[in-house]
Amino acid sequence: VRKAVESGDTDLVYLVLFSLYRSRPLPEFWSLVAGRALARNLLVKYCRDKEPELLETILTAAAAAGPPPPSTSSSSSSSAASTAAAAAAAAFPPATAAAELASLQLRAALQAEVRERGAAAAAGGGGGGGAGGGGQERLLPVLGDVAQKYAQSRDHTFQSKAVAEMAALRREQARLERETGQRLFLGLPLADTLRAAIRLGHHRAAAALKKQFGVADRRFAWIKIRTLAEARDWAALEAYASELRRSPAGWEPFVEAARKWGAPPEYLAKLISRLPDSPSKAEQLEGLGLAREAAEVAARIKDSDLFGRIQSAVAVGSPAGQAIAQLRDKFQSTFR
């Protein structure tokens, strides 16, 4: 193996690997390969693509391997085997093997889920958002095991946390499907799960998911605003705005989303009214034909030029014109 690796010829390395694999017991074969990075990486790559079962067997043994016990035999062969095993464990530690095994098992589990989903769709059962209940029951224990294996390696802390959160999300998605009778949540990313729940009116469930998975208030607000606007559920969007004393995302996103998806003027006006007083707010209200409300904003920000322009665009004898004239009398002393 050493000479093949030193040659740099990957074909030769593969030839030696296959010869050793056929002629040596698996533990001895792995102890010869694990300490040589090129040979080990080529073997892992080949097995990952062609023989994942063999790779799982090797990695399972490597992940379970601990320091070799002290040899009680004085034979040179026993001592050499012990030394080779120790070198293999040092070059490819059990924690590293466990992380590699976790990646292999996660990939296999997700591929199996995709196949089950495709089979269900082909059978006319509908693909839904994920695999059926049986597939879900098989997947969740695998995800838990994968998270634990990743946790053995300090370099895979992120992966461990991500897989654990994936399992938690899958459990919540399964619960949502049971409670709502709507089979469309399983397998969705968290943001899409929130959107689906909001779009279908399951606002408490969406809020619970937000809390459980630590979604930032600002991000959740953006998701909910956009989802309700895309669904053109203007009553729900206005109700959401009414629930908030202060919007984590500000009030501008409400107005922008309402404009983009064509909110009726009455809902748009309610949302604009929540904006901080400014010339822009006054102009937007004026654009909706709400001259009196626009003039009130101009008066509050003490912008006499804007107030005068709004007043000049309204007939003097109209109800709006009379109301604006009264406002001018009331705020005359404050105008700059």
**Order of helix and strand elements from N to C terminus:** HHHHHHHHHHHHHHHHHHH
The count of DSSP E runs of length 2 or more, i.e. the number of strands, is 0
- The number of helical runs is 19
Question: Which sheet architecture does the biggest sheet show?
Answer: none
Estimated helix fraction? over 70%
Structural class: mainly alpha
C-alpha geometry: elongated
Strand residues, percent: under 5%
Look at the structure and give the mean pLDDT.
87
Low-confidence stretches: none
What is the rounded distance between the termini? 89 Å
Radius of gyration from the CA trace?
A: 33 Å
InterPro entries: VPS16, Vps16_C, Vps16_C_sf
GO molecular function, one term: actin binding
Protein name: Vps16 C-terminal domain-containing protein
Pfam families: Vps16_C
Quick structural gist:
This protein is mostly helical and 336 residues long. The chain contains 19 helices and no strands. Among the domains are: 75 residues, no CATH class; 77 residues; 47 residues, no CATH class.
